[in-house]
């Protein structure tokens, strides 16, 4: 945790913020000293390609998946990075993205837009603010679409990856990118040429990727060999392409080679443990070069700040706000620096290189030894690459031959398909088809076009670099790219009636796994990939089973499918005893390919976990009504009902296990609710009857019988849950504080642990609701009641010692304070403002320092 606690000055936050001395080396440098820290923020696409959604990943616990976890540990903390005073109170919140040079991969940005729009908007705003500060040059740079190793891609895919990355960037940041971060910094001459052709001005590489350099305009004898990372990173270089026409100006890409030692220290040593160390380490890189401008810059995974190294986003925040300016280092970004100081040297690159592989790009195509620290081989890498290359080429042939019937230019259409990927509304799809079709298309032909384009999208995704990066093919990253391959194969079959899976599996057999239970890539595919396939029928079964417990609107969104109820009134349902039978007709339509399926379902719930759900195409209204009559006619005999269901629909059926995991878990909790209620009543009676016995055991320091201890723990936790439910339903019940305190006291007396997860979630919701009311109050008088409620809830937090999400509360509070503080000062409304200030103290915010800084900014 970075705070002023690290320093000797104890004169208050503002006194400290101006107290840190600039490192000695930096003081020797004049105005021409600049610094750029680049963060490569990226997560691989993790969505199930059939659902367009990430399924729960237990390894990310307590979060649902790894994106959620890294969002909480890194992306959000960097958008709201704290600077703390000597008491650990917040004195300032910094948006680190306003000062970092950064790239966020398109697949990550797409996920953020859907799952945390607040952080997403902070990132976009950071780029706008940095552009205003730096003459129109924003901090954000682009990235090829899904992190494909560009030197290993064919020419067509290389350009598509860059074009999709640029289009995604333009859509989000509303400007063209100046630079592009290359996946794994992998580069070769064709990649340089592709970047130049697509209008990219610069890239960032490792110093080990340079071969030789010389002053521009020198003769061939003046080349300096720098192949052992000796290149000077404090200036940019120009990489010229071979001239096709000597009479034309040479084309070029500008290159920044980041400082290797500093970048390694940031990732693997303690240089980011405090801003003093970070600023000092950067200042050490300055050279005594007279008036020549110098750029000190480093690059590392953005996840270093908060995910790999907890709380280190605070180190950045303090360095950006105070440390670097005081050290005489001007914070800039690559585009701005390049506009002010274009290269005076040129460079030649090594033939094929990357920043994380000493063997060129071997890590992504052969068993080169990288990632072999665990003792596992990577002999699977080359066969996997070969199998996917084969599949890519076959998919390309299918695509070109089939889509040419419908579209004027298949490959131009593929490049433009990014517009649909970014906006799948019917209006955008129609706009795309209008621009690229060669003739009027029927509905089934539109579906085939979209299938073929989605086939191509998945063929891109199956080359995501993470699939090769680690030691074993059966890891989630390897399985993920095989799932994209499976989806592409399925779409090819749907659109062109071709079977590519058989030969693909034969090729995967040549990819040996390190795990005996799999043996090879083909078996991994069978066990880990085929099980993830979600057909439209499974979506219908998912809907049918869940409809027994949840009410759906006439049209519902089930992941990437729209499910429309086609029955005239409502689905037909009957219950006898504990058995329930439901039948219905659905139109299941893919939001991605627009394909639709008219299906009927029959679902029989025989109590508990016993579900039988059958699906078939709609057989016509008369046949559908006959099925209803026969099935409902035998519901009073459960064995006959189950037999009749299979007789009408066929032997294939779906069970509770067929549900998508997130919803399955929800229904499992519902099914156990009544059982838990019965157990709670039983435990409560045992506890009440034996309360004094329990106290006697505790008083005499004897081991409490586990049965009695369990009864006490269950009862107290149930009381806590009921009290929190009541408080959330009726926030006026402040008298519950005494009852909550009694629960806590009894738990302490009896040595019981209270389970606070649900209570904490409830308190977080209540706190945000009241802060929202304060934020949107038009006048200070309207904040009085929400402030009283917040005071009550914070008392509950203290009683329970609940680990609330204080960060979110602080962020909302500071927005409230900045909005109302000036108005309160002008109107003299001291009572409401005093309440607001008191709340800030309870949320560990140094309100006086925040107010003082805002007043200074206004004045």
Protein architecture, described:
There is one protein chain. The protein has 859 residues and is α/β, with parallel strands linked by helices. It has four domains: 30-44 and 58-349, 7-stranded beta/alpha barrel; 377-532, no CATH class; 536-659, no CATH class; 682-858, no CATH class. 49% of the residues lie in helices and 12% in strands. 43% of the residues are buried. Residues 1-30 have low confidence and may be disordered.
Describe this protein with a few key phrases:
859 residues; alpha/beta; 7-stranded beta/alpha barrel; 4 domains; seven-stranded mixed beta sheet; six-stranded antiparallel beta sheet; 19 strands; disordered N terminus
Reconstruct the topology from this structure.
Layout (H helix, E strand, L loop, with lengths): L12 H5 L15 E9 L24 H14 L1 E4 L5 E5 L6 E4 L1 H10 L1 H17 L21 H19 L5 E2 L8 H9 L4 E4 L4 E6 L8 E2 L11 E4 L11 E6 L2 H9 L6 H9 L10 E8 L11 H14 L3 E2 L2 H7 L4 E5 L31 H23 L6 H7 L1 H5 L3 H11 L6 H19 L4 H4 L6 H21 L4 H8 L12 H9 L6 H12 L7 E4 L2 E5 L6 E5 L2 E12 L5 E10 L5 E7 L3 H13 L4 H12 L11 H39 L6 H24 L6 H15 L6 H19 L8 H17 L5 H22 L2 H13 L4 H12 L1
Parallel strand pairs: 1-4, 1-11, 1-12, 5-6, 6-10, 9-13
Antiparallel strand pairs: 2-3, 7-8, 7-13, 9-10, 14-15, 15-17, 16-17, 17-18, 18-19
């Amino acid at each position: 945790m970075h705070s002023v606690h690290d320093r000797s000055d104890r004169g208050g936050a503002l006194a400290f913020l101006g107290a840190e001395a600039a490192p000695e080396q930096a003081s020797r440098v004049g105005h021409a000293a600049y610094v750029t820290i680049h963060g490569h923020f990226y997560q691989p696409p993790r969505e199930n390609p059939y659902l367009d959604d990430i399924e729960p990943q237990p390894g990310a616990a307590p979060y649902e998946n790894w994106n959620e976890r890294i969002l909480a540990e890194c992306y959000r903390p960097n958008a709201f990075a704290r600077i703390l005073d000597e008491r650990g109170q917040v004195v300032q919140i910094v948006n680190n993205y306003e000062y970092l040079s950064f790239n966020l991969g398109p697949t990550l940005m797409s996920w953020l837009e859907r799952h945390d729009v607040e952080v997403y908007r902070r990132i976009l705003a950071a780029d706008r603010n940095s552009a205003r500060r730096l003459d129109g040059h924003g901090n954000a740079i682009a990235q090829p679409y899904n992190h494909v190793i560009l030197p290993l891609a064919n020419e067509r895919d290389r350009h598509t990856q860059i074009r999709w990355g640029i289009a995604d960037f333009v859509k989000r940041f509303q400007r063209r990118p100046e630079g592009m971060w290359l996946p794994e910094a992998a580069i070769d001459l064709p990649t340089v040429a592709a970047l130049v052709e697509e209008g990219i001005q610069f890239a960032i590489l490792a110093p080990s990727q340079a071969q030789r350099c010389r002053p521009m305009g020198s003769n061939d004898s003046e080349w300096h060999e720098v192949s052992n990372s000796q290149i000077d990173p404090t200036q940019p270089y120009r990489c010229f392409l071979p001239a096709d026409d000597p009479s034309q100006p040479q084309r070029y890409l500008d290159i920044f080679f980041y400082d290797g030692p500093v970048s390694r220290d940031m990732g693997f040593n303690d240089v980011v443990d405090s801003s003093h160390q970070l600023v000092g380490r950067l200042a050490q890189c300055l050279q005594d070069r007279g008036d020549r401008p110098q750029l000190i810059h480093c690059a590392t995974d953005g996840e270093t700040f908060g995910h790999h190294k907890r709380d280190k986003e605070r180190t950045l925040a303090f360095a950006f706000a105070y440390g670097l300016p005081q050290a005489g280092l001007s914070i800039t970004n690559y585009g701005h620096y390049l506009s002010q100081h274009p290269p005076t040297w040129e460079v030649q690159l090594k033939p094929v290189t990357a920043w994380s592989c000493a063997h060129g790009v071997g890590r992504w195509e052969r068993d080169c030894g990288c990632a072999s620290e665990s003792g596992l081989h990577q002999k699977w890498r080359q066969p996997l690459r070969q199998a996917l290359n084969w599949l890519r080429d076959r998919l390309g042939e299918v695509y070109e031959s089939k889509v040419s019937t419908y579209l004027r230019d298949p490959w131009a259409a593929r490049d433009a398909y990014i517009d649909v990927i970014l906006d799948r509304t019917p209006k955008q799809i129609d706009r795309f088809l209008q621009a690229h079709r060669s003739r009027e298309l029927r509905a089934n032909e539109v579906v085939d076009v979209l299938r073929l384009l989605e086939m191509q999208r998945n063929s891109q995704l199956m080359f995501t670099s993470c699939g090769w990066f680690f030691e074993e093919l059966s890891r989630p990253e390897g399985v993920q790219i095989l799932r994209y391959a499976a989806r592409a194969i399925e779409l090819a079959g749907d659109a062109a009636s071709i079977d590519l899976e058989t030969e693909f599996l034969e090729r995967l057999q040549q990819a040996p796994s390190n795990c005996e239970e799999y043996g090879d890539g083909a078996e991994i595919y069978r066990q880990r990939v085929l099980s993830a396939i979600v057909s439209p029928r499974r979506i219908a079964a998912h809907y049918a089973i869940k409809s027994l417990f949840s009410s759906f609107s006439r049209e519902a969104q089930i992941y990437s499918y729209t499910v429309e109820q086609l029955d005239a009134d409502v689905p037909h349902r009957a219950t006898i005893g504990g058995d329930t039978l439901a039948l219905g007709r659905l139109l299941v339509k893919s939001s991605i390919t627009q394909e639709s399926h008219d299906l009927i379902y029959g679902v029989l719930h025989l109590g508990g976990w016993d579900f039988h759900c059958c699906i078939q195409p709609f057989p016509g209204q008369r046949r559908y009504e006959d099925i209803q009559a026969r099935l409902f006619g035998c519901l009073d005999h459960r064995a006959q009902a189950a037999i009749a269901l299979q007789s009408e629909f066929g032997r294939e059926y779906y069970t509770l296990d067929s549900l998508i995991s997130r919803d399955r878990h929800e229904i499992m909790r519902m099914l156990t609710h009544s059982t838990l209620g019965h157990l709670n009543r039983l435990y409560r009676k045992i506890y009440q009857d034996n309360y004094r016995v329990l106290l006697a055991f505790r008083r005499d320091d004897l081991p409490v019988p586990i049965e009695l201890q369990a009864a006490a723990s269950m009862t107290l936790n149930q009381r806590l849950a009921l009290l929190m439910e009541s408080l959330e339903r009726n926030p006026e019940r402040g008298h519950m504080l005494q009852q909550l305190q009694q629960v806590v006291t009894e738990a302490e007396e009896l040595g019981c642990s209270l389970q606070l997860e649900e209570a904490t979630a409830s308190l977080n919701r209540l706190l945000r609701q009241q802060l929202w009311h304060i934020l949107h109050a038009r006048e200070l008088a309207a904040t009085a009641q929400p402030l009283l409620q917040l005071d009550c809830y914070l008392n509950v937090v203290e009683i329970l010692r609940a680990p609330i999400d204080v960060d979110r509360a602080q962020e909302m509070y500071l927005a409230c304070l900045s909005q109302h503080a000036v108005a309160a000062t002008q109107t003299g409304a001291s009572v409401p403002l005093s309440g607001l200030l008191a709340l800030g103290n309870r949320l560990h915010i140094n309100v006086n320092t925040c107010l003082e800084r805002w007043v200074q900014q206004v004045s």
